Amino acid sequence: MYRNINVREALELDDAVLIDVRSEDEFLESTIPGAVNIPLFNNEERKDIGITYKNVGPDFARRLGLKISLQNLYEKIEKIDKIAGGKKNLAVFCWRGGQRSEFMASVLDAVGYNAYRVEGGYKAYRRYVNEYLNREVLPQKAVVLHGLTGVGKTELIILLGQKGIPALDLEGLAVHRGSVYGGIGLPPSPSQKAFESSIVQFLTGIGEFGLFVVECESRRIGNLILPKSLLNTMKTGYRVLLYTSLSNRIERIKKAYTNGPGQNVKLLQEATSSLVKRIGRTKVDELNGLLEERKFDAVFAHLLKKYYDPLYRYPECPSEDYDLSVDTGHIDRAADVVFDFVTNLPEYKKMVVGGSPYGDRRKA
Q1: Is the pLDDT of residue 358 over 90?
Q2: What distance in Å separates the CA atoms of residue 70 and residue 83, rounded to the nearest whole number?
Q3: Which pLDDT does position 314 carry in this prediction?
Q4: pLDDT score for 54
Q5: Which residues pair with 225 in a beta bridge?
Q6: How far apart are CA 43 and CA 211, in angstroms?
Q7: All structural domains of the chain
Q8: How far does Cα 162 stand from its chain's mean position?
Q9: Interval 309-346: pLDDT, tens
């Protein structure tokens, strides 16, 4: 017999596979991080069952659901066998822990798996995420990277993560770089629900009293909104200022945004045109003309000095207003400096002693 477990138990289940039996569209909107989708009913089948329920009644809808679920059931089990790869623990969930997960959990139990059914389904997981984020500040301490556009904040986040430091790459999770050009060359951003789930997955991974490095962000990254508790935690965190020359910043931006078909000129022009209310039609046309001629340095230099730098107002050199100031002209060297700073903080040492998953991943 399968066993009912709550969301927290499912997330803490050892050596297990999470199986989302909802339809493809439900899964694509958001799921529990790490879950795989084995729909009991696909999009069209779910729609047909809903129509039958509304027009004919629940009994006929259940019969239709049973008929559909028995079709290709063996193929679904074979897919699960491949995904499980020898793992015996399978946790199944649907929208709210109803008949879809109950049916699949029963089948998996019958064919020899240790099957678990997540009570409340994905809806219960959303409550878990909301409860985690719905507080004034997070229990963890933040080390916040500040600096003008192009100083290498995201590069540093990635390098610190590779060194074993808990690094929350918000722009990576959002699939957006945060600027007017932020989505160029990238796939679509996730849903707000999926974005929040990824943040909670990261934070629970470092423990309730851990420490993490994060880039300073505004309330929005593209169309996604940062949780208030995370923003408040960033405001009270350690402050690290990154700075470098204008030429280095231009090179970083050029590398990020012109690496695509036709050097992304058309996309860059479209994004620049969205600034018309802020910099005027004459300047937009001038910049788009320069983009057409591939004069990227001139375009990015103007936007940095005349638009982004006045907007953010960060120092261009070391400042006593920050806990640490770092020149990112040599990004690997800068990562070493920040690494030493972070690993000597009392919160980090406490996290290592406390047995955080990140505690044994330090690299010299």
Answers
A1: no
A2: 20
A3: 96
A4: 85
A5: 220
A6: 42
A7: 3-130 (3.40.250.10), 136-353 (3.40.50)
A8: 17
A9: 999 999 999 999 999 999 999 999 999 999 999 999 99
Average pLDDT over residues 81-96: 94
Q: Residue 17 forms beta bridges with which residues? A: 90
142-168 per-position pLDDT tens digit: 999 999 999 999 999 999 999 999 999
Give the pLDDT band (50/70/90) at residue 85: very high
SS (H, E, C) the chain: CCEEECHHHHHCCCCEEEEECCCHHHHHHCCCCCCEECCCCCHHHHHHHHHHHHHCCHHHHHHHHHHHHHCCHHHHHHHHHHHHCCCCEEEEECCCCCHHHHHHHHHHHHCCCEEEEECCHHHHHHHHHHHHHCCCCCCCEEEEEECCCCCCHHHHHHHHHHCCCCEECHHHHHCCCCCCCCCCCCCCCCCHHHHHHHHHHHHHHHCCCCEEEEECCCCEECCEECCHHHHHHHHCCEEEEEECCHHHHHHHHHHHHCCCHHHHHHHHHHHHHCCHHHHCHHHHHHHHHHHHCCCHHHHHHHHHHHHHHHHHCCCCCCCCCCCEEEECCCHHHHHHHHHHHHHCCHHHHHHHHCCCCCCCCCCC
* Residue 26 phi, psi dihedral angles, 5° rounding: -60, -45
Q: Is the pLDDT of residue 360 over 60?
A: no
User: Residues near 204 by Cβ (< 8 Å), separated by ≥ 6?
Assistant: 11, 132
**Exposure of 102 by Cβ count < 10 A (0-12 exposed, 13-18 middle, 19+ buried)?**
middle
Entry pTM:
0.90
Q: Are 109 and 115 in contact (CB under 8 A)?
A: yes
Q: Round to whole Å and give the CA distance between 325 and 242.
A: 6
Give the other-Cβ count within 10 Å of 109's Cβ.
18
Fill in the amino acid letter for 356: S
pLDDT value, residue 354: 56
Dist. CA 158–CA 295, nearest whole Å: 29
23 phi/psi in degrees, rounded to 5: -70, 165
